[in-house]
Amino acid sequence: LADMVRGRRILETIAAERLLENATARGAQLVAALEGMGKEWPGLVSNARGRGLMVAADLPDADTRNAVVSDCRAAGLLVIGCGDRAIRCRPALSLTAAEADRGMEILRKVLAPFPAKITALSRGLPSGTEFTHSSSAMLREALEERRELPPTAEG
Question: What Rg do the C-alpha atoms of the chain give, in angstroms?
C-alpha cells in the first residue's frame, strides 16, 4: 500500500511541475546543440539523437569517446559511453534551460581541441608530435601508419 501511495505522489508531482513538458523541451534543446556541433565538426560529432532527456551522439571511435567521457567528468559534466562509440546523458527531469546550455558549453570546450588534432593528423605531422589530450595514443598510432615504410627487397 505504501508503494502505491508513493507512486501516486510521484506521478502527481510530475504532472504538477510539468516535468514531461520540460523533458521534451530540454531534450530538443540538447539535441539541437549536438546537431550544431555536428555541423561545425562533421568528422567528430554525428547522429545526434534523443527522446526526452535521454540524448546521445556518435564520435569517431571508442578511443575518442573514452577520452571525451573522461574529460567531461573532469570538467564537471557527467556523460557516459554507450555502444561502440557514442556518448549519452540523461539529466534530471527538472533540468533548466540554463543548466542545459551550461552542459553543452562544457561539452563544446572538451570537444574543441579534437578538430585541430584531426587536421594535424591529416597533414602528416611527424610521428613524434606530442598531443596533450588523453586520446594522443590513438592519434600517434595513426601517424605511425602514415609514415613511409622502409624500402623492401623488391625496391
Answer: 21
